[in-house]
Amino acid sequence: MRASVLVEPGRIEISERAVPTPGPGDVLVQVSSVGVCGSDAHYYREGRIGEFVVEQPIVLGHEASGTIVGVGEGVATDRIGQRVSIEPQRPDPASDETRRGLYNLCPHMQFYATPPIDGALAEYVTIGAAFAHAVPDEMSDDAAALCEPLSVAIATARKAGLTAGSRVLIVGAGPIGIATAQTALAFGATEVIVSDLDAQRRAVAAKFGATTVLDPREQDVSALQVDAFVDASGAPSAVLAGIGAVRPAGTVVLVGMGSSEMTLPVQTIQNRELILTGVFRYANTWPAAIALARSGRVDLDSMVTGKYPLAEAEQALNADRMPGSLKAVVRVQE
Length: 334
Prior knowledge:
Helix content is 25%, strand content 29%.
């Protein structure tokens, strides 16, 4: 099979590899579509994200969909031919975190495209059968792949406690910010405020339903007084301003990947009894993601702004530098 391999930072090669064999409890998936995440671009350019370092050639890509073409021992053969969205995780079923239902926090996690685990920019991959989620016929391959970033947004919305009548501030109108804005509206939020420095991204946020978009250089974000603040930018200045916007007993959710350390307004957090938490991937989100996409309450197809064949995976990894780009996808079989 063909695979797009990060040989070293800044260099991608299309290589021939053996088709993987599904082990017990696994399925073999012929990959259809792979979304490009900011983490993929970061590994491509920098060779690391925090403590995760690329030390050997690796296949990137963890937002994936495809069709089951083979099964391992213990998996019903009637799953062959099923179109699926891949939840790209292999937690240890015996870990305390997994047994508590928090399998995304499993210390022994094997996650697609996180060194040294290969990802989905290849013609075939294997995954545990329970992590290959069947999708309806009317869902496109691209939308099935983008159930992964949507799952980040669902995990974020749950952490933020968003519900009917919520007022939420989202800083950063990239793919996760846009997915979170749509999810917030689907969860019943009545006011979804999106802040971004870029005018094009603010316009995109408005297109996807944000009730208010603003430029933080022109408006005092801390004066908003919202129920929840979601940072999808990773910028320390944005985090500080956003915390100031949260009403007493409100919630702050950090999802953007930026500085490994930053100074926080501890007195504000204490005096207002704010809940401050992070989001690391997701758990138990795929049924909700598929339902939201199928119902039309979240539009994943319209988030795609660039489509590339596997041979042009390197261009896809650089697509985020193109004006107006929101989400690039690689069509593996094209």
